[in-house]
Amino acid sequence: MEHLPTSPSSKSRIIFIDVLRAYAILMMLQGHFVDTLLAESYRNAEAPLFQLWSFMRGMTAPIFFTVTGIVFTYLLLKDGRPLKENKRVKKGLRRGVFLLGVGYLLKINFPGLLFGYFSPWIWAVDVLHVIGLALIALIAVCSLRELLGGSLATWMIAFGVVTFLIDPFFTENTWDHLPIVLAHYFTMDLGSNFTMVPWLGFAFFGGAIGYALSQRAQWAFTHWFPALLMAFGVTLTFGSWQMLVNLYELTGWHYLPVLFNNNYLFWRLGHVFIVVSLFMWVVPRIGTIPRLITKIGSETLTIYGAHYVVLYGTWLGIGLSQMIGYRSLDPLTCIVGAAAFVYAHIVFIKHIELIRHFVYERIPAWVKRQYRLMLVWLKREWPQQREVLTDRWEERLETGPSWLLPLVRVLGGRTKE
Question: 331-369, pLDDT tens digit by residue?
């Protein structure tokens, strides 16, 4: 098995990011499988194992959004040129719009469309929509900083904090007056899994880390920078509730009690910082990482799209959730199934080049060849076959209905007879 070096001498990528993304996407696979298929009777919130699973599953989306901010901001600033000359800007904007489109595309039920059925669920906002918006929002913040000046890290942290703080404004109000397509981005009451606020906040905080690494990439291989992130993470995990309470006592802002009574945002952000710091510190000290792990981390969109269609059966109306039965498995069967589900995607990515070669080259080449053969057959063989068929039908119709003869002759090209 091919391995990649994780030391500072590896100039291609900061490897810990791909490893972290691989971890997040694999956790997402098992999390979605178990959440979709584990029976309701086994969902005991008091059971330690179920609590551990719920906690780990809740980490997946914040890690993805934060890593999006880290990676995109790092690559955007690594170019070094002003945004007007930076190719990453147009690429990021195109990528953002593309992810929004893919997010909607994955929800389409094509057999339903044939019968005129169009589910309103297609407008529900999911992970890909938020990541697409995150890329656009990160470019907007970088543009604002370039226009007004100041530290980009400060701008990113400020936008992240504000995005978290205004979350109650969106959750405590109704958005029925908006078109349903837009309303999904503001509230989860219509069926969306995520909304712009507060989830873009994680991308902004990731952008602050990405800015730091773009200035000093070697910080990712030190002891003090991961330790600093760890300190921030521990502080937010254990101290963010008191910070929000103190802020309420200072300002009296009526939305703050909503935040500190359900302090999941800053609490989760603390966990994300801890996980990022651990991966940042541990991965460079392992020595080498199997190429397959970083490959999984770089193919998260492919994995997400494949698992979405296979598990939820969106495109064809049939998937594992329909074939097995929604929330119908016992814990042991569900664990075995989740392991097999994850393993299948690992194998899928291991052979992704062969699969892409087959799908994008072999199949189109075969279709093109068959099309050419059909044209040759229509030009060379079909006239003879048509004559033979016309003669046979004329013989049969000599004793049959005479009104069919003109039709047969027209189809046979004998209109002059």
Answer: 999 999 999 999 999 999 999 999 999 999 999 999 999
**Contacts with 195 (C-beta within 8 Å, 6 or more apart), sequence order:** 125, 130, 170, 184, 185, 186, 187, 188
Q: What token pair was written down for 292?
A: 């397959």
Task: Say what the pLDDT of residue 12 is.
Answer: 43
| Tokens, residue 409 | 């002759």
Look at residue 411 and give its three-state secondary structure.
Answer: helix
Residue 305 CA: distances (Å) to CA of 42, 312, 358: 28, 11, 18
DSSP state at residue 366: H
For 268-316, write each residue's pLDDT tens digit.
999 999 999 999 999 998 888 899 999 999 999 999 999 999 999 999 9
Instruction: Give the phi and the psi of residue 38 in degrees, each rounded to 5.
Output: -70, 130
Is the omega angle on the peptide bond into residue 198 within 30 degrees of 0, that is, cis? Answer: yes
CA distance 292 to 303: 13
Alpha carbon 303 to its chain centroid, in Å, reads 8
For tokens 């701008």, the residue is 155
Structure token pair of residue 285: 């000290």
Calpha distance 252→105 (Å, rounded): 44
Place of tokens 């091919």: 2
SS3 223: coil
CA distance 122 to 399: 59
* Global confidence as pTM: 0.89
Q: Which residues pair with 5 in a beta bridge?
A: 288
Calpha distance 72→89 (Å, rounded): 10
Q: Which residue from 239, 201, 271 is spatially nearest to 55, judged by alpha carbons?
A: 271
